[in-house]
Known about the structure:
alpha/beta; Ubiquitin-like (UB roll); nine-stranded mixed beta sheet
Amino acid sequence: MRNKKRRRLFAHRSFVNRRIRPRAKRLELHQLDVKLNSRRGRRIRLCRRRAMIIKVSAILLTLLTVSALVRWAYRQAFYENSEFRLNRFMVQTDGILSEADVASAARVELGMNLMTIDLKAVRERLAELPMVTSVEINRELPDLLQVKIEERVPLAWLSCPPQGVRPRNTARGFLIDEHGEVFRCQKLLKRFLDLPVIETYHLPMPSEGAQLDSDVIKEAIRLVKESNRLFADDGLQIEEVRVRNPYSLTCRYNTLMEVTFGLKEIDRGLQDLRWIISHAHSAGQELATVNVMPSKNIPVTFYTPPALKATPLQAVPGSLRELPAAASPVDSNEERLQRQLRSILSGG
C-alpha cells in the first residue's frame, strides 16, 4: 500500500516537473539523419540531373530555333525581297540642290534595299550641308524614298578683298542670307549672278555655316531688303553696298546712281530717297549721287547729257554756199522743273 502511494507521488511529480517543449522541437527529436549512399541511389539522382539538363537544353534550343526562323523569315520577306528595292528617288527642294547632289550627300543609290536605309543617318548627313535648313524624309513601300529639303535663300554676295572673298565665284565666294549666315555657292546660277554685293574690308575670314555678328553687315542686309521692298515695282535694285566706315553705307543702284545712307537712319533715308526719285522723274532728270545722311539740304547731283558738236558742212559746187545756222531750241519747261527740284531739295 505504501509502495503504490509512492509510485503515484513520483508519477505526479515527474509530470509536473517535466519541461514542455514546443511542437517543432519535439518533432526534431524524432527526425533521422539518414544518408543513403548506395549505388542505386546515386544512379537515380544522376538520372534525375541528366533529365533536368536535357529538358532545359531542349527548351533553350527550341527558343533559339524559333527566333532564328523568325529572323530569317523577316529578312527574306523585307531585306532580301526584290520588291523593296529603291527604284524611285524623289527630291523636292526650293534651292539649287539637284537629285544627284542629294543622293551623293545622303549616300543613297538606286537598287539599294529600301528597308536597309537608315533614315535618321540620311537626315543627319543632309542637315550637315550649309545651304540646308530643314530635311524631311519619307519611306513609302515598296520602292519610293521621298526627300523634302528647305534651303537657305541667298540675299547677297559677300566681298572682303583683304580675306580674298570674291563675289560671283564658286571657289572664293560666299553667299549670305537675310539672317546673316554665310555659305558657299555650289552652283553659279543666273539668278545668283543678279544678287547684290555687300563689300567690307573689316571682317575675319568667314567659315561656312557661320553667322556674322557685325552690326554694320546686319544693317547692310536690312538696307538691301527694305530697298527691294520699296523700289521693286520701279525696277530699281541695289547692285553693291560698300562699307567704308562704321557710320555710313554707300549703295550703287542698277541705274548707276550712288546713294549714301546713315547707318542709324536707314529708314528715314529710304523715305527721303523715294521722295527725291519721284520728283526727279517728274522733272525728267536722272540722279547721279544722293546723300541722305543729312535730314535737310540733301546734296543731289544729276547726269548731264553730253553736248552734241555740230560738224560744219563743206561747200559743194553747184549748191548753196552757206546754210543758215539753226538756232538751238531751249526747253524752258525742263529748266523750270530743274530749278523747282533744286529749290525744293535746298529747302529740306
